[in-house]
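Is this the right way to post structure tokens for a design question? Let me know if I should format differently. Anyway, here goes:
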């Protein structure tokens, strides 16, 4: 599979992003959809659908569908990893945190975000920030109960 215009990133981060892109996590459907939203980034052609199975405020399972560039797919895959077993409040906090990191308002070091750290380098490429944040804005829409979002 060819990666679509992956910007110049550190080799380590690049590898992490490509690993997630080649075999994205969270592709197994949930057995019950409690929260769901679609998102798209027309600038790049990224599309995503996020479904959450939640029990007693805990995210039991995350299903991420969609396609797009390596950055949006990797970000969605990382989102699926990190949200598992988190509470809805933690999920909201994480999405705020990712927005801050991508907009340079936080350095990504004061919260353990695992592989998501690899996306931090993308903030040097303003056009791609939307790719990295698409899963997170879609997650917020899902949690807010909206069905469809188009970012621009
Ligand atoms: Zn993209």
């Amino acid at each position: 599979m060819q990666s679509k215009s992956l910007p110049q990133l550190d080799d380590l981060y690049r590898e992490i992003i490509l690993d997630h892109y080649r075999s994205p996590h969270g592709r197994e459907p949930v057995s019950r959809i409690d929260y769901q939203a679609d998102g798209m980034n027309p600038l790049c052609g990224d599309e995503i659908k996020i479904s959450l199975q939640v029990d007693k405020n805990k995210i039991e399972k995350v299903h991420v569908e969609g396609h797009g560039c390596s950055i949006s797919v990797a970000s969605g895959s990382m989102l699926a990893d990190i949200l598992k077993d988190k509470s809805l409040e933690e999920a909201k906090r994480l999405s705020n945190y990712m927005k801050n990191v991508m907009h340079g308002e936080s350095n990504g070091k004061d919260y353990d975000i695992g592989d998501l750290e690899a996306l931090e380098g993308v903030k040097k490429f303003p056009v791609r920030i939307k790719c990295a944040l698409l899963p997170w804005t879609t997650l917020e829409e899902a949690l807010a109960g909206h069905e469809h979002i188009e970012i621009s």
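Format looks fine. Someone answered above. Worth noting: Residues 41, 44, 46, 68-69, 71-72, 131 surround zinc ion (CB under 6 Å). The longest strand covers residues 46-55.
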